[in-house]
Every structure is written in C-alpha cells, then in structure tokens.
Amino acid sequence: MNNTCEKHQICPIFNGILKDKQMTAKSYQNQYCNAGETGWNKCKRFLVVKQIGSCPPNLLPNSFKSVEQIITEMSNKEI
Ligand code: SF4
C-alpha cells in the first residue's frame, strides 16, 4: 500500500514555501505526508482540501487553526 499522500506532487509545502527549509519539510513528510491515511488526516491542508477542494497556499500541516476556522477565513476573503 502506498503511504504517500496523493497530493504530494502538487503540494506547495514541498515545492514552494519550504524549499529552503529541507529539515522542516522532511519532518512534515515523516509526520504527515508519508504516514498513510492516519498521517494525512492530521494534516490541516489535507483536511481543508478534502472538504472544499482547495486551501490557502501558505497553510502549514500543523496549523493551530481549526479546519472550520480556516474555511471561514477563506470564505471571508472571497467576498
Ligand atoms: S502537507 Fe498535507 S496535503 Fe500536503 S502532501 Fe503532506 S499530507 Fe498531503
């Protein structure tokens, strides 16, 4: 079974905002992206995309905000 998140190729956490922070990126990969469904389901990016199909590009997997809070903030920005 593949334990890697299906979104890893398009996820900006690795090819965008963390490209200069390889240690941090590696730690996120171990904790979330390569940790199977249990790991993905702890990632705020994964959970927000699962619910509404997109998420803020700079959102971190371990954001202190709740999924609901993130989605509310996104919809407020779209007004
Ligand atoms: S950060 Fe989250 S959404 Fe991105 S690849 Fe890792 S588990 Fe998937």
What does this structure look like?
The chain has 79 residues and is mostly helical. The protein has one domain (12-77). Helices cover 52% and strands 0% of the residues. It is built from five helices and no strands. It has helices at 12-15, 22-33, 36-40, 44-52, 67-77. Helix 4 (44-52) crosses helix 5 (67-77). The longest helix has 12 residues, at 22-33. It is globular and about 35 Å long. It starts with 11 loop residues before the first helix and ends with a helix. Iron/sulfur cluster binds at residues 5, 7-8, 11, 13, 28, 32-33, 40, 43, 45-46, 61.
Total number of helices:
5
**Overall form:** globular
Low-pLDDT runs: none
Strand percentage, roughly? under 5%
Ligand kinds: iron/sulfur cluster
Q: Order of SSEs, N→C?
A: HHHHH
**CA-CA gap between termini:** 42 Å
Tell me the number of strands: 0
Average residue pLDDT:
90
The main β sheet shows up as:
none
* Number of individual domains: 1
Instruction: Tell me the Rg in angstroms.
Output: 12 Å
